[in-house]
Design goal:
The chain is mainly α. It is 88% helix and 0% strand.
């Protein structure tokens, strides 16, 4: 197969993987969109705030992953591509053994700390937190299986399982809220669905790799060193990511109480949904980059950075501007009370201000993960996390929720610019090409922005909001199609020429 044909195959594989991952997350997002106001009404601001607070604490316990899952993704892709079954079995068995021990450590440590961390809440909250802790402890060893599917690029299969369990969990959530609404009952439902989902991942992994064995004899010192060498840096990056993602909620909870946590969490989740909606697609780059590195195809990696950045910007820029322009009426309609717009919208504006840069740097970060060059990245991410926490503690007492949002946004802005620059230099990518990847989507975005800002949109209902969004997005889609059509035609023509040459040579 010629090199251009191989690259076309890579593009198709990445598009399929990104598309199926995106569909699975889009389904999750749609469910969260409809369930969030429903759960806020059923549980109340305080109970919903407690739920968000407990989730933020548990997010730190997920750090016991130690970056091992990312290591499994990278090396499963590499060993599967090279056909090295023995090394693949050693890697998976070693990771599973490590996860078993870490799961036990999570449960013991959590049970010891929860009485102190949750002392201000009643016993029902403690029972809910303990159940979710057990859920996490059991999930850790099982997480090796979705990582295997990622490494094999079986994204469609993995997404199908997730969507099926999502439908089951959604129906169960509505039933629980109607029959006996409580955090504990929700915890039981989520635990059962989570274990079922990971069991299906395990079945899919063994079907995809019939030779796969989980044996104690496969665990050896050399593989432990290999896992440690990659995972330690991935772990530090995880620590930073969890701190940046959850410290805002914890700071608000400690300084301002449970109800303000709800306001901050709603705004933060909207922004996180938008980030994850696109990051879910970029996650498919890690195994692809690992394979390209093994083949020495650095030109393809450089093109991946530029093209990937351009496409995620096409997608994220209208979301970012839509949140800022229409965030206030959207919050009122979504949650059914103007108080949420008043409390959440200022936080939403601050947190969404860096959205396009965050998503763009996720392309660069995935390349670093695929190459295994995480040492400097992880340490800079830790500096971001430290700045996040310190600024939050300093700004929250004086500026409230907006101060905490600024504490999240400012270090994140600096970190994103550094990651992009660091990755571009590492793979020797042209700065001019990368800037063009930004300029074209920014120019196209002027079309919907002009439409959204000129008219005086008022008296919003769902119909009016939908029409306003469509008035900007439809011409924007046409402009993007006109910009990208020549590129697509050129790639298709090149592929056709290569195919003709291949048959002619035969």
């Amino acid at each position: 197969m010629s090199n251009p044909d191989a690259r076309m195959h890579l593009k198709r594989r990445l598009l399929i993987g990104a598309g199926t991952n995106w569909l699975a997350f889009a389904a999750t997002l749609a469910v969260a969109f409809f369930l969030t106001p429903y759960l806020v009404r059923k549980l109340g601001d305080s109970q919903f705030g407690i739920w968000a607070f407990v989730e933020s604490i548990l997010a730190y316990f997920t750090l016991f992953d130690l970056g091992i899952a990312a290591c499994v993704v990278r090396f499963v892709a590499r060993f599967h591509a090279s056909g090295d079954r023995a090394d693949l079995n050693r890697l998976v068995s070693t990771a599973f053994a490590l996860f078993l021990g870490l799961g036990g450590a999570v449960f013991v440590l959590g049970l010891a700390l929860f009485p102190f961390l949750l002392s201000r809440f009643d016993s029902d909250v403690l029972a809910f937190a303990a159940l979710m802790l057990a859920n996490l402890a059991l999930t850790l060893p099982l997480s090796v299986f979705p990582s295997i599917l990622d490494g094999l690029e079986r994204f469609a299969l993995k997404s199908g399982i997730r969507i099926s369990i999502l439908a089951l969990r959604t129906a169960g959530t509505v039933w629980v809220m109607e029959e006996s609404p409580s955090l504990l009952n929700l915890g039981i439902l989520f635990t059962a669905c989570n274990l079922l989902e990971h069991s299906l991942f395990a079945i899919a992994s063994f079907r995809s790799l019939p030779f796969l064995e989980l044996r104690r004899r496969h665990v050896d010192r050399e593989t432990l060193k290999r896992v440690r060498g990659y995972s330690v840096h991935a772990f530090l990056a995880m620590v930073a990511g969890r701190t940046c993602g959850q410290s805002g909620i914890l700071v608000v909870g400690f300084f301002l109480g449970a109800a303000p946590v709800t306001y901050f969490a709603i705004a933060m989740r909207l922004v996180e949904f938008a980030k994850a909606l696109l990051r879910t697609g970029t996650n498919t780059l890690t195994p692809a980059v690992s394979s390209l590195e093994a083949k020495g195809d650095w030109d393809a990696i450089r093109k991946m950075l530029v093209a990937g950045t351009r496409w995620v910007l096409y997608l994220v820029l209208p979301i970012q501007l839509g949140l800022i322009v229409f965030g206030r009426p959207f919050l009122t309609l979504w949650l059914g009370d103007p108080i949420y717009a008043e409390q959440c919208y200022p936080v939403l504006v601050v947190l969404s201000s860096t959205l396009s840069l965050v998503v763009a740097q996720s392309i660069a970060a995935r390349i670093l993960y695929g190459l295994g060059h995480l040492r400097v990245f992880a340490r800079v991410a830790l500096l971001e996390a430290l700045a996040n926490v310190l600024l939050g503690v300093l700004l929250c007492p004086q500026f409230g929720l907006v101060g905490v949002a600024l504490a999240v946004a400012i270090p994140n802005l600096v970190m994103c610019m550094w990651v992009i620059r660091h990755t571009a230099r590492h793979i020797e990518s042209s700065s001019i090409n990368y800037l063009q990847a930004w300029m074209v989507p920014l120019a196209a975005m002027s079309v919907p922005l002009g439409i959204w800002l000129i008219p005086q949109w008022a008296d919003f209902g769902w119909m009016e909001l939908s029409l306003a969004l469509a008035a900007g997005l439809l011409p924007y889609s046409v402009v993007v199609a006109l910009i990208e059509a020549p590129r697509t035609s050129l790639s298709a023509g090149q592929s056709l020429r290569n195919t003709v040459r291949m048959f002619a040579s035969k």
